[in-house]
Amino acid sequence: xxxxxxxxTLAPIEEFAxxxxxxxxxxxxxxxxxxxxxxxxRTAASYVILARKGMGKTALMLELYRQLFMQQKKxxxxxxxxADDEEKPGRAQLTLERFISKLFLTFAFQYGAFKSGKYxxxxxxxxVLAEQKNFxxxxxxxxLEKQFLGHLEALATGDLENAFDQAVEFxxxxxxxxxxxxxxxxxEFQVLTSIYDERYGKFRNVTQxxxxxxxxxxxxxxxxxxxxxxxxxxxxxxxxARRFGPYYLDPFAQPHSMEYAYRLGARxxxxxxxxxxxxxxxxxxxxxxxxxxxxxxxxxxxxxxxTAEKIEALYTFExxxxxxxxxxxxxxxFEAVADKINGDKIGLQCLYQLAVAKQEIRIxxxxxxxxxxxxxxxxxxxxxxxxxxxxxxxxxxxxxxxDPILAAYIERExxxxxxxxxxxxxxxxxxxxxxxxxxxxxxxxxxxxELYTRHLLTSFAxxxxxxxAIFNLAAGNLKLPRFKKVEHRTGLVIAGEAxxxxxxxxxxxxxxVEVKYRQTPVRLNDVEKFVEKLSKLEGWSTPxxxxxRIWFFSRRGFDAPASARLHELAILHSDxxxxxxxxRAVGIGEVPxxx
Length: 595
Description:
Strand order of the largest sheet: 2-3-6-1-7
Structural class: alpha/beta
Low-confidence stretches: 1-20
Helix content: 40-55%
Largest sheet: 5 strands, parallel
Mean pLDDT: 84
Oligomer: single chain
Shape: globular
Strand content: 5-15%
Radius of gyration: 28 Å
Number of strands: 18
CATH superfamily of the domain at 3-14 and 26-248: P-loop containing nucleotide triphosphate hydrolases
CATH class of the domain at 3-14 and 26-248: Alpha Beta
Distance between the termini: 59 Å
């Protein structure tokens, strides 16, 4: 293989995720920004991101790379993904030679681009050898150019061992040599457990050779992979054990899965209501991959997701029709791990017990349900764990399946394949269960609004805002107090009567907060009921003593009499525009609103 041929086999670095598609993950980004800061102090540790497919691992790493590349100059970011190199039907196996060149060229090019400032945006890797030579020659870095030419020579002479070491250790070596800091991100790390060495006609696990880079406290590694069990076995229990800490990536919380739905809906020009976005969260469990599937489904023909019926119909198509992306994903996964599921003939029955369980379940409980020996169940559950279908909690306990779509898939397979229930009958029963679970969309939106408000209150840090513009109160500038504690759904019992407020925030001041997230404005009668509730709470009758405030937030605002009464009582009050202005003032994301 010539050098030109080799270059042509390399895929360029992935397209970088647009900021309009990346949703939330603020806490996660802060964690890894802090890790980058630790690298400058040479105290950083390596981490493995653990989450199933579609949870947003790649998007998180791409956004982190983008931010580090664009917003700072202290830490050199490196990113490479092997997602396109997984062995699949019709796809060539990743060879050792291709792996070496992809890793080295990507990292060397990213280093040169970052240090030279030749690019104003994260770069794509040049595919033509002549362009690569020109790039490294123009960087003004003789050492980097020499490294690149040495890489080409090693490949041309067949010295793969030297080229391999140079590629694997490039990032930590060059940053160490120059007393710099870096951070190495490798997506789909489990692919590297099976690299084909054409010289010997066999597969090699090359992950073990990352022991030195994983220990580079000035240039830590962050790796991820969709095959959770394989990643755990490779990174947490194999030769790399104790070199990586685990970082668990959870599904989106309700406000953020709704925000993701809004963004996808806007991009697809689909009609969507806030109530429908709340229902999408409940049906998908906040899994961003499932949400993406709904908005990219061939079943979304009229671009209308404005009602519960429309959501239900699309969800049914995606999870039951063979043309649905979600159905194809789980069909493909179950087919790939069929031996692990059916090896002892009770795999699906075990999965069903975990799917319908409301809490963690013991091996002996499943064995009793199936009337088999616990040892047989233990063996089957181990296979299912390796197939990334279930997770063990501790010892003999296994987690119940909390992914609502996976649980529904398992229930369908069990009821139709094992119990012989007709598919049409099962779907009718499942539709009834879905409608029962959906409940009131208003309740879902109210819960989301309270979560947003709680997040907003915890972001108060002494900022000064104009009270009239945000709180409809002529009080000049208002300093936002720091809160040590913000309690959700605070209930108090006074004289035997329950008095409940949405939020209680305590710290430099104490605030009581009422949240109304409904379709109509708050009226005078609503205000009077609120004031009556306040009168039952000692110390909260208006006018308030120093250090106490009341804030009334209404999604649709207030009618004139209600607003006048709140002004009279000096109660802070905001509609959605004021709420979002407050979000901007404290530097957090606004509440997405569909008019």
